[in-house]
Amino acid sequence: MGNKNREIIKKALSKRTFTESGEIYFSSSSTTKIKAHDGEVASFSYADTSGLGARVVSENRMGLSYTEKVDEKSIAACLEKAKENSQFIPPDEGYAIYESDEVKSYNQFKSDDLHAVTVEQKKELAVNIERFAKEYDERIVNVPEAMYCDITNERIISNSYGLLKSEESSLCYAYAYLMASDGKDTSVGMYFQGERNFADLDPEKIARLAAEDALEKLGAEEINSGSYPVVFSSFTASSLLGAFINSGGSAFFGENLQKGRSKLDGKLGEIIAAPHINIIDDPAIFSLGTASFDDEGIDASKHYLVEKGVFKTVLHNIYSGKRGQTESTGNGSRGYSSSLSTRLFSPYLQKSERSEASLFEEAGRGIYITDVEGLHAGLDQISGDFSLGAKGFLIENGRKGKAVTNITVAGNFFGLLKDIIAVADNNRFNDYGDFSSPSIFVKSLSVSGK
Amino acid sequence: MYSREFYNRLLAVALKNGGDYGDIFIEDTSDTVLLFDSGKVKSINTGLIAGAGIRVIMGGKSVYLYASNVDETKLLKLAETVSQAVKYDKTGNMGELNLISAPSSHKIEILPSTVDLKDKLDILYRADASARDHSSKIEEVMIRYWDNVQKVTVATSEGRLVKDTRIRTRLAVTAVAVEGDKKERGFFGPGKALGFELFDRFRPEDIAGEAARIALVSLEAGPAPQGKMPVVMDNGFGGVIFHEACGHALEATAVADNASVFCGKMGQQIASPVVTAIDDGTLPNEWGSQDFDDEAMETRKNVLIKDGVLQSYMVDKLGSMKMDHPVTGSGRKQSYKYAPTSRMTNTFIAPGDSSLEEMIASIDEGIYCKNMGGGSVNPPTTDFNFSVAEAYLIKNGRIDKPVKGACLIGKGSDILMNIEMVGKNLDYGTGMCGSSSGSIPANVGQPPIKVTGLVVGGQEA
Fold first, then answer.
1. Could you tell me if the ipTM is greater than 0.85?
2. Which chain B residues contact residue A386 at CB under 8 A?
3. Phi, psi (deg, nearest 5) at residue B294
4. Nearest to B31 by CA among A48, A12, A68
5. For chain A, which end, N or C, has fewer CB atoms within 10 Å of the first or last residue's CB respectively?
6. What is the pLDDT of residues B173-186, one digit of tens each?
7. How far is B332 from chain A (nearest CA, A)?
8. Which residue among A45, A69, A382 sits closest to B183, beta carbon to beta carbon?
């Protein structure tokens, strides 16, 4: 199918009715989703979708248009519409498409085994997640979501300079979201695993870790408000750091720096984090967000955002690169229907050799945070302030103690980077977040409770 | 788009190996997004979203297949593939399809497609200028204009054939105020089920002015306090508290799978007697309104809680078959790329007898939340959180200085019982709600309310 789509796109570009430069972004995917409940497949979904977005640059003006009708006539109309839209945009030297005539296909992130996995095997995996969870402990009373999903995707970026890059990729994931009850209290638990290969999904482990997550939280108590030393679990550290580092408003993204929306403006080369902190984006590492080239067709490459506490790299797409009199770092991000932004591929906070338990020992007392809620609304990327609903455990005498609930944890991202006393060794790249962090120990944060 | 006979044929193919119920969903949507940033138009993007989905429900289980870029041949193949995923010994009633049509309750005066791009862009320029005129401290203005015309056809094995057009327009302004090294943002983004006449009701200048005002208040704000305290939430988007804390747990999505704290509570007192809560998809031209849901059912006014007593859940077709509760016109989804599930439309707490002044006067120490941000919830426990966009301390019965950066948390089931006072002035706020069937326009609303014992999470040392 790859060849056919590439040909249609090439032809549409060559037959365009105008001389200005144009680009087509095409993506096509097949998705299978299976949810098990009460020992059976409760819902099955399969999808075959595609869409195409055009960008046209004319005298430093750029217009966009997209369509999910992928045939010659619709593509031609889409290109025309993008050209028409460009005429209403004030000129900006930043608008450009990738001036390259490279022709290359990639498949390094394509699954080795998914094509040979039957629907029955996929169903069995979802059903097994629920079964393992219920067998694990009688207090696991309900598994509302025992899910399996896989996605096979083809992405093509082609432009009038002759660029034609395509990538076939596929991945699968599964998770359990479940409820535990001891008759008095109810808690929820979750575990997610995403892999390139089906054979690596482990339904028993997904079920067990989700069940433990819920069971540990039963009978949680409220605590007093105050300032506490805090250890964020790998999961919560990843969520929190990802929400600041790898989302639209990230202080590390060139466009935000240029437009006065980043506190890191003017800080390149300066210390912005504790001296042991390294934050890296390495597209070669498999994660749910990685790819071989960015959404403007530029090869993805490894970057140190922070090295030994020093701010090292501003991330650019073509637009922000040009405006900053520099080059794109290959971090352009868009889908066929969305406008350009910036993103990272497999960003992470580099781990140490230390266990998570050693962070509890070093803290002595404090709070171990295992759940944070409200990341989409409870933080401000410009100021770095955050205040989030949370759950977790007390740290008492250097060990994990009783469960606590109904607390909030508040602080500031830029302060936190400097206040990370230690990091653990437990990074995970197969989670669903936008970032991978080991557990981190932070000097002190405001915790609100009863 | 296709003939009635063709839909009949598709349904027959989809259900040929059995099924209690089947439906076809066809969508053709035009979408316009205009972005304005740093004093100029940044991006103009127009697009067509087009595709279809076919679903069969059997014994409380569902199969849903969807595809973009469909035609008659592809649709027949899709129906065939659906039928192959079904082995079931019953086939539900295959009534002849009847087109159900009624005049729309949501009159549109100016269709987005009839408005010149220039005139749409003019709205953005006006909003930008107005925000900047508000104060020299407003240094950044980001504006998003969105209009969307979603045309859907739904055909069901129960004989219902519905064609529905949903038109929505929204303008969202984010203003950034700067003073020294302080940078704060304010947001206001009203939307309605209206065309371009939205801007007769909400002048772009006023939308931008409100965003600028909130940003300027935040510049003056100190850190929010910590701990449990009484909270007054003003009308409008304050209704997000009911949406998150209780609304989601009343959706069949959670209730039918025994994953809601409100399971089996019908007819019981689950809220304070001053609380009456309603989900009403019929309110003329409101953000969450439409004539039909995505399962060909008329939207309705559903009284969820009356005087504190649970009256109804919000129920889609699959949920109704699983939990033996009639459908409530609540089956919604973002697009053909999702199977429908039970969702909210315009959800609000009905007006009561108290005044905002009485509520403030009754509190020695607490906070007054004038504007809310977003939030989320875990339906099994109703543990919720949401952020506060504009808040003030209450001291000795009076509104005191502004505070920022707070989030509020609690358990929905507790909060419902702790709503002590409900005010008179009902207003709505525009939101997008994310769940298993995608991101959909959902309106929240309430008059001012007073809640005791919410945990406020601020930064105060």
1. yes
2. 405
3. -85, 15
4. A68
5. N
6. 999 999 988 888 89
7. 17
8. A382
